[in-house]
Amino acid sequence: MVTDEASKRRQKRIAQWLITGVVMIIIQTLLGGVTRLTGSGLSITEWDVVTGALPPLNHEAWVKEFAKYQQSPQYHYLNSDFTLSDFKAIFFWEWFHRLWARLIGFVFAIPFIYFLVKKYFSKDMVMPLVALFILGGLQGAVGWIMVKSGLTGDAIYVRPTKLAIHFVLAMVLACYVLWFALQLLIPRQEKVHHPALRNLYYFTFLVLLLQLVYGALMAGNKAATAAATWPTINGSWIPDGMGQAASGHPLLENKITIHFIHRGIAYLLALLIFAAAVMAYRKRSRSAAFRRYRWQPALLVALQVILGICTVLTSVSIVPNCWGIFETLAELHQLIAMFLLMALVTQLYLLSGRREAA
After folding, report:
1. How remote is the C-alpha of 342 from its chain's centroid?
2. Which residues, 6 or more positions from 311, have their beta carbon under 8 angstroms from its beta carbon?
3. What is the average pLDDT score of the chain?
4. What pTM does this model have?
5. I need a surface site. Which of 68, 125, 317, 354 has the fewest CB within 10 A?
6. Domain boundaries of the chain, sorted by first residue
């Protein structure tokens, strides 16, 4: 017979495992950002799940791998002056990005099997955790589809829309795992009943997901330098040329349009989150967790807006194949966006309490 104390210990271990997974997904997403910013994403032209775990181990293997990259359109149109040494530099980040994905798989799979054998899971936990593995597998498949989009025709980068899908799916996976962990970490009595605030945060969460899509489109289209100005967009509040695109839909591939939408959503998000923070402050609650975390989204969105502005303004300093202030700020901007998303998920969980009986 399992005692309450033993049950709590088991739940804590499962929660620690899940939080470790969330942290690893965040690191993986940052590695994806580094891979994109260094132009490394198309350096590995095959998807070898098993043998691809090891990098080339000798000079002949490196030459062979480089020869494969030399067949790609990115090499022909952008990096035809690359030496083997240059190739090794970009290969590392894509290889490490894929290696970390494999490590995430092990970190989720091995403890899952252990907990399953030891009967740590209640019956209602198993299927949601199986769904987690399905989401993880889907994310890997989407990642390869994204890479393939940059290996055909005259493409020199992955398709921005596929990059956006890959990024947002990673965030959905992280939110899913975090919600599961919160159920184990935060007692039910810490939840708060406030339907109006909960609905506001639901709407804000959806707006943030849309903003993440446009953040990925900004990155995928390399749109920062198209309007390295603030508060206006190249001197105009409503810039010209937003309804046109050389190829694809202007909402997805017109750099100025993407700037306009991304900035507009940022201002809307800030207003929504500040309004929610005021509502949360006015809510009298006995929940220590709610009181502790209610200001997090407001602080994070303020920092995120500042980082976004600085990232755009420093985009004029971009030097190809050189890491600088823009790249550092872009990574920080992405990191705080993920923290903000996690903060909103935490708020939604804390606000999922039921009305107390009179």
Report:
1. 11
2. 224, 326, 329, 330, 333
3. 89
4. 0.92
5. 354
6. 1-185, 189-358
